[in-house]
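For practice. Any example?
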Amino acid sequence: MLIPGFLALCVALGGSSGGGMLPNIALQLIATLLLAYSVAKFATVSFSGSAKLLIAIVLCWIGWGVLQLVPLPPSIWTLAPGRDVLEQRLIAGGIAPLPSLPLSLNPAGTIKHLAALLPPLAIGAAILSRPPAEANGLRWAIPLLAFVSLLIGVAQLISGQSSPLYFYENTNLDLPVGLMANANHQATLMLCAIPFVASLAGTENAAGSKAKGREMLLAAMAVMFLIGIVISRTYATYVLALPVVVASWLIARPRSLGPARYIGPLIVLLTIALLAFVVVAGPAIFADPTVNATQLSRPAMYAVTAKALEHFFPLGSGFGSFPPVYRLFEDPSLVTNVFVNHTHSDYLELALEGGLPGLLLIAVLFLWWLRRAAAIWFARSPSRIERAAVIATGAIFCHSIVDYPARTSAIAAILGAGLALMVPRSTDVKVDEAPAGGRHLSAE
C-alpha cells in the first residue's frame, strides 16, 4: 500500500503547479523521507542497464540544476549568453564592483524546480527498490483517484463558480477541474487512467473470469473518463483520446489478436501528426479569436519564448526562471494585469531554462522511452501494467507539447511511476496469464 498511498497523496495535494504552496511543501517533505528510504535499499537491488541509464539521466538533470546555482565571479557569469541584461541593470543601479552570481537568473525558482522533482523521484525510487508486485496497486489506484477527481469536477459544475469544491485560488472556475487547478491537467489525469483500467479489464479477460458485471463496470468507468475529457474542453486531449483508447483496447484485447500489436507504431505516427496539426492550425481553428489577439494565445507565447530562448542559448536562463525572463521580452503594449507563468509548451520552456544541456537530456530520455516502449509492446509475454505505463507516459509526453501537465506533482508522480514501471526487472519472476485461464510462471 506504500506506493498507491503515496500516489494518492500526490494527486490530493499536488494538483497545482503554482498554487497550494503549503500542501506542496508537505508533500515534498514526505517525498524526501520516502526517497531516502528507497535509495537506502538500492544497495540490495540489482539494476539492469536500462535502469542505470534512467537513473543517470535523472542525476544529470539534478546536477545541471545544482550547477546553475553555483555563484560565479563576474569575469565568468558576464560571458554567459543573455547576462548582458542583468549586467546593464546592475551597473545602472550603481552596484560596483559586480557581485558573484549564479547562472540562474532566478535562484529561488531553480530551488523550487529541484524541490518539485521530489515526488516523482520518490515514487519512482520506491517502485525500483521494492518487489514488482507492490506496484500492482497502481492498476486500481490511478483509475480510482481519477474517478474521485471526475466526481468532484461534476459537482463543481453543478454547484457553480462559487462552489467550495474548487480547492485552488487560481483555477478554472467555469470548468470541472476536480482535484486539479487546471482543466487541462484534469483531462491528462483522465487520459492516464484509461490504460490502467484496460490493464484491469485485461486481467479479468485473461483469467477467464465469468464476472461480466465487473468487466462492464470497468468499461463504464473508461467511458466516464472519456466524458470527463470532453467536458474539460481541452482540445489537445481530444486529439490524444483516440490513440489512448485504441492502445488501451490492445491491452484488454484477447491474445488471439496478436498482429494487432503492430497498430502501436501507427498510433504513434498518428498522434504526432495530429498534435502537429493542433500546434500549427489548432489555435486559429478552435481558440477564441479575442484571446488570439492578446499575449495569452499560444502562438504569441511561443513567439516571445522563442525570442528569449535565442537570447539565452545555449546555457539557458536557469530552471524556474521562466516568469521573470518572459516579462523581459513581452511587448509592453500587449501587457495586461494577467501574467504568463508558463508558456504552455513544456519543451519550449525547458529549452529556455535548461539550454542545450537540458535539450540533450530530454532527447536521451525520449530515446530511452522509445526503446523500452518497443521492447514492452512487442514482448512475447507482455505485462499489462507495463503497457499501461507506456501509454500513460506517452500521453503525458505528448500533452506536454502544448501544455505543462508534469509541472504538477500529481501528474509528475504518475509520470515518475510510469517510467519506473517501464524499467526491465531481469531477475524477477512474475505470474503471467494464459489465454485459456491457466497461469504459468515466466522468468524475465
Summary: Confidence is low (pLDDT under 50) at residues 282-293, 427-444. DSSP finds 19 helices and two strands in the chain. The longest helix spans residues 346-377. The CA atoms of residues 296 and 305 lie 12 Å apart.
